[in-house]
Amino acid sequence: MLRRLFAKKPKLEKVKSTVVATAGVVMPTGKSPDESYSELFHDVQVSSVYPDGKTFIDMVPRKKSRSIQQQYRVARQQPDFNLNTFVDEHFYQYHPHTHRPYEPGPETSAREHITRLWPELTRRNRRLRGTLLPLPHPYVVPGGRFSEQFYWDSYFIMLGLAADKEWSMIHGMMKNYAYMLRKFGFIPTANRNYFLSRSQPPFFSSMVTLLAVHRGRTRTYAEFLPALLTEYRFWMKGRKVALDHVDKPAYARIVRMPNGIVLNRYFDNKTTPRPESRREDLETATHAKEANKDKIFLDLRAGAESGWDFSSRWFRKASDIQSIHTTDMVPVDLNSLLYLHELTMAEADTLIKHPLLAKRFLRAAEKRPSAIRQYCW
Questions:
Q1: What band does 260 get if pLDDT is binned at 50, 70 and 90?
Q2: What is the Cα–Cα distance from 8 to 287, expressed in whole angstroms?
Q3: String of DSSP letters for 294-323
Q4: Per residue in 240-251, pLDDT tens?
Q5: At the N or C end, where does the chain have fewer CB atoms within 10 A?
């Protein structure tokens, strides 16, 4: 079904994908809207021009951000200024999938319904469109309102695609992640420039294992081993700092446990309100008892990186988001995923005849379960 969707001009499509995969690595991504639109962005998000903060941040500007900023500073001084009108004049919503929605009939089975949804949820974007970043290959989104490829959602989407033998789509989505790892050094939450400070639960190795069922272990592991290594380095960045400095047991996504073994936590590279939830995050920080607002913003962002945004597992007090302290915890799910990642890398190095590297990752994988049992249960 999906092959038919992209059957037209296959050679031209391949050329376009290749251009994005090569030239796109060095192309700029632009600043996040909270940085590029400054006062305008703050006013729109805090004023609730749209009920969902993600609506505005996903809109595409009609002009360059500097020009829009300058016009806003002048226009808002006028007595008859209307913020909603200004936004409508300078931004538009990008909806490439606005067509008559698919509706299942009463005779449609659950399996048929899922299969027929794939074309409805397939997107292709090879241009920079506001905050939406280009990717070389088509991808499936988790819901009809989205235009971006979300990280951990994609693994569960791939399980469904595999059941329908849509291996070409799975492979393309995997190559999108390999592309993002080359470009950014990690897999962001999704291909939006405001997600470029955080990732999501690292299911990349599970994706590699899934694809290997169809394409073969050696070929698949060899193709994605560089990407696996880049992903691992991202999560393990700061290991040396945590091990060498007694006063810094935690650094970035690394935590040195009391027994000296390193485990991981969710984190974020920024300590500001999430752009897509600016109003909500500011309200949380304002009413929180915690005096360190940067810490609250960091914990909110880290909770979003976990994909559990938001679960009471991150709160000191159940049902009270103001008590969030995500970065103080070493989550069992994250460390279990990284254990699988280490095993996958050890197996990949074994298959391509790199025994020393295989032993290195196997040793790392052997240390992690004992620490998980000791500290996470």
A1: very high
A2: 55
A3: HHHHHHHHHHHHTT-TT-GGGBSSTT-GGG
A4: 998 888 888 999
A5: C
Q: Of all helices (H) and strands (E), which one includes residue 277?
A: none
> What does residue 358 show for φ and ψ, rounded to 5 degrees?
-60, -45
Residue 193 C-beta-side C-alpha neighbours within 13 Å: 22
Q: Is 256 helix (H, G, I), strand (E, B) or coil?
A: strand
Full-model pTM: 0.94
- Is residue 291 scored above 90 in pLDDT? no
Assess contact for 53 and 279: CB atoms under 8 A: yes
Q: What one-character-per-residue DSSP string does 120-137 give?
A: HTEE---S-BTTBPP-SS
Do 182 and 224 form a contact (C-beta atoms < 8 A)?
Answer: no
pLDDT-wise least confident of 8-12, 148-152, 196-200, 226-230? 8-12
Q: How many residues does the chain have?
A: 377
pLDDT score of 38: 87
| Distance of alpha carbon 182 from alpha carbon 231, whole angstroms | 10
